[in-house]
Amino acid sequence: MTLSVNMIWMALCTALIISLQAGFTLMEAGFTREKNAGDIIIKNLLNFSICMLLFWFIGFGIMFGKGSGFAGKIDFFSMGDYTESIADDASSGMFIAMQGATAAVIMAVVTGAMAERSRMTAVCAFGAVMAAFIYPIAGHWTMGGGWLSANGFHDAAGACTVQMVAGIAAFIGAKLLGPRKGRYAENGNIHAIPGHSLLMGTLGVLLLWTGWFGLIGQGGTVRIGNVFLNTSLSVASASVITVLYTTGKYKRPDISLILNGVMAGLVSISSGCDEVAPAGAVIIGSMAGILTVNGTVWMDQKAKEDDPIGAAAVFGLCGGAGTIATGIFSTKGGLLYGGGGSLLAVQIIGVAAVVLWVSLTSYITFRIIDHITGLRVSEEEETAGLGISFQEAPHDYVDLLPEVKEDADYEHSLKATVKDIPIDIAIPVRGAMPGSGNWDGTALTRVDILCRQSRFEELKSAMNRIGVTGMTVSQVLGCGMQKGAAEYYRGIPMDIQLLPKMRVEIVVAKIPVSKVVNCARKILYTGHIGDGKIFIYDVRDAIKIRTGETGYAAMQGIEDVVS
Length: 563
Hints:
The protein has helices spanning 5-31, 37-64, 92-113, 120-142, 147-150, 159-177, 198-216, 224-250, 255-269, 278-301, 311-329, 342-372, 379-384, 386-391, 408-417, 423-426, 456-465, 513-524, 551-554, 558-562; strands at residues 444-451, 472-478, 488-489, 492-493, 499-508, 532-539.
């Protein structure tokens, strides 16, 4: 059997759509706290599986079957004839797989909006209803031959049918669920809860950008070049506008909102990607970039809706706005291309109808689920972290932590230079602790230096030049009296911004403390806030574990021991 072009293309699109699940998982895990990452992973995996099964079992027939203008038909296990809905040289099985993967995208968005406090059984139950009933009926209206598509409604890649449906359901779910613990103070002030890894979030968004070409390519290979170009231009313009807009609004770019801007560009162009001109795609993407920033801020500050990934603004607002914009910028009947207002009117009516349908059914479904199982986890589980409470593991990424290994070459060089101390000599402390009567009174001083990361290498070299042979170095987060540099996260000023610093601990015995301090100040000084601080402490005593030596003797290096 020879595979047709459309068959191969549909297979590729299906694989790309499935990869969206990986992108959403990475983005959501990165935008939330590390303690909840395991919960996000399992919810996305389960919902993808549930949506695929339920959509195949009943949802596909309701969406694409021949029925009324409201719904298709009940066709258990999708056994009917759907040749009219697919290309002549493609299989119905491939089409069902592609549409099932598309249906599963919706719940990836919903779980992100409800992250860090939703009960797994509740989210999975809602996913089953969404795939079997809510989404198929909306999809029948717009894509499956229902009353909207019969009247010319255009939604090429699901800006309304998939993305806006997801955004509306996410908004209803997050609103009924309530904000995360600590998100809003009693006086109404908003506390920013930053995600634990913007790098992970960025990788997720880039993966979504790649997988999105599977969504926009579902229409086949006709005009695919124009579709890809328009999508790329929309995302690029949305990204640039979001960078410029957040920089002007918050004095510096907000990375999390910029990532949302990328998603907004993808979502907004999905309706008209096959019909708008490249200039129209740039305008639509630019509009979406500004809309997602203001929409996210409004949701947080006015609507008091706690949405970690900005689903309502990115997918709900931008999905609806992009669908309506198709009625303006479409080269086949858009308002600006001599088509009058008919296409714009049907696009507006379609968006309004889908919003009403999804809002009503989602609200009822969530209420029923809340009554049966409850939507929210306990306060103790939320505080501990859903990844911990579900997996009963202390760390979501425990297997990814680096293994600490002894340096074999260093151990060998020590054994060749210094003879081992017998245990009966090493274990008894050789010397005296302060207050024992024969302590020699030698002063030990600990100098702690907090400095900029960029100055550490110079500091290390300078300490070596003056004879400091031992130091303990760690990367820390902290701030001084200024509470760190002014910083915004998703448009909300941070209560206190912890900045990355280097902490260098040195115990001084032989070298004058003043020499260490003056050298450090000379190297670290820039004259600007944030140069760091130096703390000086008295050390009562030190004990070298290998030899049992104390005090001054314990602080001497190998050279002194050998000599």
